[in-house]
Amino acid sequence: MSHHLVSVRDLRFAYPDGTPALDGVTFTLHHGEAVGLVGGNGAGKSTLLLHLAGVLRASSGEVRVGDWPVTPGTLREVRRSLGLVFQDPDDQLFMPTVEDDVAFGPRQLGLPEPEVEARVADALARVGATHLRRRPPHRLSGGEKRAAAIAAVLAMGPSVLVLDEPSSNLDPASRRALIAQLCAFEHTKIVASHDLDLVLDVCRRVLVLSGGKVVADGPSHEVLSDDELLAAARLERPLRLQACPRCGT
Amino acid sequence: MSPVESALAHLGALDDLAARDTPAARLDARVKALATVAFVVVVASFGRGDALRLLPLAAWPIALGALGDVPWRPVLLRLVLASPFALGVAAFEPLLDRAPALAVGGLTVSAGAVAFATILLKFALALSAALVLVATTGFDAVCAGLERLGTPRLLVAQLLLLYRYLFVLAEEAGRMVRAHALRSPDRPRPTARVAATLLGQLLVRTLARAERVHAAMRCRGFDGTMRLVRQTRLSRADLAFAAATALLLAGCRLVHLPAAFARLLTP
Amino acid sequence: MSDALVSPAVGGALWLAAAGVARHAARRLERDEERRLPLMGVLGAFVFAGQMVNFTIPGTGSSGHLGGGLLLAVLLGPHAAFVVMASVLAVQALFFADGGVLALGCNAVNLGFFSAYLAYPLVWRPLAGDGRSSPRVALASIAAAVVGLQLGSLAVVLETRASGLSSLPLGPFLLLMQSIHLAIGLVEGAVTAVIVLAVRRARPELAPAETGSARAVVALGTAALVAAGALSWFASTRPDGLEWATARASTGAPPAASGTVHELVARLQRATAVMPDYDFKGAAEPGRWGAPRAGTSAAGLLGAGLSVAFVAAVGLGARAVRRRGSRRP
Question: Residue C117 and residue B251: Cα distance in Å, rounded?
Fold first, then answer.
């Protein structure tokens, strides 16, 4: 088992119409780390995540997940180790029932039915969605969809869990439940989010992305208190770290 | 409610009905699907003048609906909404065919009137059978049943994905129509040109969504083949249902049941 | 096309033809392009949703909506377009009582086959070329839509006639259908053109779909259709074999002695006459219409009443079974 779990080296990527998106991104994740990925709109967060899962191919640079470099030939192995939870759960829940969606991954892996069933039950239990098994996705609330999407990814048994804006469209209760779940997962985690308080709660380390580059990489508390840095990246402090509106401290 | 929204509500309602646990829902999807097809074929096989013989066949959708606790009002409503075409065509019959066929009391019923009744009965029977099938089975179970019956995998997968994204897209279309109506109070329904532009935009967004869905599927191992699995075994209830259906269909087709009933009472 | 108007012979024949084409298309797609499945599914949902968007047609005030067959063909190519259209029709038949299960094959042919396998490769592609020139795309779309819909509505007329369940006179029916669908085709073509051009602008890298392997299907499919048409025509000009046989077998008198030949002649006449001769029909075939073999109409009424009672009894019985079933733990 390799020491680093995810390593990105000088990743560069531009969209087909020429828009540059990633301009030399480099970082390394170790086993069990929880890293937040923050940045303004268009900074390149989602693009970076898509590279990790092998959905996009870099123009130059390298991405490694576990023992595998991410190349067209190694996608099967990469996707078993790294699970990506998309921003819009509707894009990710494409089967008629939650049960079928969660079972999709294991079935595609070719696992025998009893194993598939075990994984489905386990994944749903972990996100607290066992009662949603037979429901169709369009009958789920935002929080329930999110939970189902996460379960669908968990069922593949990845060692790295990557989430793109997991708390968007969640009511406060669902959001709180999500934070609790994320903290409970022992996976290595990458969470891309505008929700800086969630990042503070879940991640010990934070990467700040701005203009396609990593402009900061350090402990969450430190990075998310650096006002100058945050402003330059179109961000601000998490609400919890901002001055008290009453007494100003 | 716009037509988009009401259609969506109808779909969702049928789906919810099917999700409940009733004796009808527990029957094997393959058996139900085949029985429905057999029913529709038998209904269609009657001639123009057989309105009377069609009556006992109503027992089938009604029985299945009762077994599945399907409320009759929405089904009736859906039939009424779908009837204009059949009504339009059937309406010609009494006008075009005045030959006398029956004498009831003092009135003469024309062959055209009988044909009118036949067409409407066929319409009602065939379509209520389909509705009851869906209301007791759930679309994913129907698809699974179809696959077990030999439908190519790609077709089944297509049906599943279509059904799934129907709701998403119908909502988007509904939002679009509503947004237009709000900015065009004098004429809420768009002209063809405006609608075409709106649909074009919707399509561009849809294509982007399709790419995201594809990416999500690839991330979960989709390599071009969708693996669908649904193990089911036939139970005694399935066999009983199949037998009862066969009996009813054969009985109605081979014997003039209403006449037989009448003869029973007037020996 | 509706279940109310189609006979099992015609419906069955066209079901077989449509299923054959669908099976073939599915096999081809499974071999080469199954990765396009998400696109196909989502586009099917788009067409379905698009059909629910009603618009007013300028100049007439009546409302219409997108059909989608041609659009699908431009975006996906003939095989995938046919499969998607068939799936949309299937869901409509099952859920919305739209069309019908038996008539599904007819509808798949009328609305899917003609636009995907004939109108698109033979009319749209040649006229539109690479799809870059707006006027050419507009012309191609209108022409292809008109052709596809004319063929489709002609098919509906032929299917209705062959089914022999409606007395609609052929001439006026044909005229009405073809002219209505000419207008519909013009609108459909225009709307399709606008949509195609919009997609073109936003996604210049998407080219109109290829048609290569469709040639075989066009040939096979057309042959299958001709065969199906001939078969169902043939079936409808013979006496209804099953009915005749069962009439003999069941209790009660055999059908009117005028029997076979009379039936044959009458059917042929009905099928080919432009204005059916009603007197002939009514007078010469007293045994064919409504009257149950029980003889008197009073017995007929009684039979009807008892049938309703029968249906009610079955319904109540089923409800009892369900209640018992639910009470089980």
Answer: 42
Which neighbouring-strand residues pair with A164?
A192
Res C233 pLDDT > 70: no
Q: What is the pLDDT of residue A144?
A: 92
Give a yes or no: residue A50 inside a domain: yes
Look at residue A224 and tell me if it is in a domain: yes
The 10s digit of each residue's pLDDT in B162-189 is: 988 988 898 888 888 888 888 887 777 8
B76–chain C nearest CA distance, Å: 11
Q: Contacts of residue A110 in chain B, CB cutoff 8 Å?
A: 227
Q: How far are the Cα atoms of A80, A156, A179, A207, C70 from residue A161, in angstroms, in the given order?
A: 11, 11, 14, 16, 43
The range of the structural domain enclosing residue A65 comes to 4-91+159-238
Q: What angle do CA A89, A94, A100 make, to 5 degrees?
A: 110
Contact present, C145 and C188 (Cβ < 8 Å): yes
B52 contacts on C by Cβ (under 8 Å): 290, 292, 300, 303-304, 307
| Residue A130 included in any domain | no
For residue C255, give every residue at least 6 positions away whose Cβ sits within 8 Å of its Cβ, in sequence order, or none. Answer: C244, C247, C248, C287
Query: pLDDT tens digits for B203-227?
Result: 999 998 998 998 898 888 887 777 7
Q: What ipTM score was computed for the predicted complex, to two decimals?
A: 0.82
Residues 189..218 of C with a Cβ closer than 8 Å to A: which?
205
Sequence ranges of the domains in chain B: 18-138+233-261, 152-230
Closest residue on chain A to B21 (Cα): A134
CATH of the domain at A169: 3.40.50.300
- List subunits contacting chain A, requiring 3 or more Cβ pairs under 8 Å: B, C
